[in-house]
Design brief:
heterodimer; A: about 280 residues; alpha/beta; Rossmann fold; Alpha-Beta Plaits; five-stranded parallel beta sheet; three-stranded mixed beta sheet; 10 helices; about 50% helix; globular; B: about 130 residues; 5 helices
Chain lengths: ~280, ~130
């Protein structure tokens, strides 16, 4: 009845370990990429744009970019709602910082040394050592920048994880060992769901759903939820604040499970002055 | 098997016991309410309860110590933690030490009755109703 999240650098066999763990535990396997078609269908965004949002750093996310910040909110929403089902192995970074307080989620990071990853890539993609090395370093930097920009986190920070497994030189034994460690750990009673942790997960999913619903109004809005009560924190110019609050309330109250919404406005001084108010 | 579930409810804030005690009794459980954790510990040593519901942050003795004492005395008794200071660390510690469940405050009497009903079910009391 638990959830496992696994993150890893590319060609570290993280995805393989995640899939194998799901199979052995009879859990469902999901990752950010295989959920992108559902995101595309529900939010009407081309799947290719969703995929780009998972990789491109916000420096390239702008008005004309195909990787708008709200796409991440859409992905977070569907993943968080998926995780409510429990018995899931999720491979990816999206949502990870949002579920730190959910005690029935075992958060795992897999690390492997660069040399082994290069060899792994050369073998799997049939590329030269030089090319494999360059692309891996580039991908690592890209992932690092993405996590910093989207969540302001350092993916190498061990505090984000319950378990950091170094599979070293990526031998079959190392992969098997990692798998057994994960399966053994998640069976521990402290990772079993309880009323408190299930409520935390529900609150995360609700906050994500509210952010997705309001993304067209403000994609940087902060949202907190507790048992159907929603607290939103946004910016507005004084003149338009009342209309904005009304629009937000109308949209959010249509979401299933929302009982009450509080909107907190931080008046945007710069824009207010610019509008001569 | 006894006809009624026997529950000990411990919270150092009188208002919690005053509210939850009658709400639990209403569905037919026998409830003893305590505000003083030391008195509750004495009672736990005298009698094996089916369920112990305990707060965490209480003066001299905390809820984790209550949980540990209950575990030493009985494998059967289900311990439900109620707390206004819920964290992932506390939740895992409580489960690790054998708590049945943990609920974060604030919660409604129905929330607690529902968890008690689950605990009762796991003890074999199948006919107990969660809602009043």
């Amino acid at each position: 009845m638990s959830i496992i999240t696994i993150t890893a650098g590319s060609y570290s066999n993280g995805r393989q370990i995640a899939k194998s763990a799901a199979k052995r535990l009879n859990y469902e396997y999901i990752d950010s990429e295989n959920i992108s078609s559902l995101v595309s269908k529900e939010f009407g965004v081309p799947e290719s744009n969703i995929m780009r949002a998972l990789k491109e750093t916000p420096s390239s996310v702008g008005m004309f970019s195909k990787a708008k910040p709200e796409y991440i909110i859409f992905i977070e929403t569907l993943i968080a709602e998926y995780l409510l089902k429990n018995n899931i192995v999720y491979y990816g970074v999206v949502v990870l910082p949002l579920i730190q307080e959910v005690s029935h989620v075992l958060k795992v990071q897999i690390i492997a040394d660069l040399e082994s990853r290069i060899k792994n890539r050369m073998k799997l993609d049939n590329v030269s050592q030089d090319k494999a090395c360059k692309t891996l370093v580039k991908e690592d930097n890209q992932q690092k920048k993405w996590a910093e920009a989207v969540y302001n986190i350092d993916l190498t920070d061990p505090n984000l994880y319950d378990l950091v497994i170094n599979i070293g030189h990526i031998q079959d034994d190392d992969v098997e060992g990692a798998l057994e460690t994960i399966i053994g750990t998640v069976k521990h009673k402290k990772f079993q769901p309880m009323t408190y942790s299930l409520r935390c997960m529900k609150n995360v999913a609700m906050s994500c759903r509210v952010r997705a619903t309001l993304a067209d109004i403000d994609s940087k809005m902060q949202v907190k939820s507790d048992e159907g009560t929603v607290y939103t924190y946004t910016k507005a110019i004084k003149k338009k604040a009342q209309d904005k609050v009304l629009e937000m309330k109308q949209k959010v109250m249509r979401i299933e499970g929302v009982k009450h919404i509080e909107v907190f406005i931080d008046y945007d001084l710069f824009t207010t002055v610019a509008h001569g108010q | 098997m006894k006809e009624n579930l026997e529950i000990l409810l411990l919270d150092d804030e009188a208002i919690v016991g005053n509210r939850l005690g009658p709400a639990i009794e209403k569905v037919g459980y026998d409830v003893e309410v305590f505000e003083d954790p030391k008195k509750a510990l004495n009672r736990i040593n005298e009698k094996e309860f089916d369920i112990v519901v305990t707060d965490i942050m209480m003066g001299d003795v905390n809820g984790i110590q209550i949980l540990e004492e209950v575990r030493k005395k009985s494998d059967k008794t289900k311990v439900i933690i109620i707390t206004g200071y819920a964290t992932v660390t506390l939740a895992r510690e409580a489960m690790d030490k054998g708590a049945f469940d943990m609920i974060a405050k604030p919660f409604t009497p129905d929330d607690l009755r529902s968890v008690i009903a689950k605990a009762a079910d796991s003890l074999g009391y199948k006919k107990i109703i969660a809602k009043a």
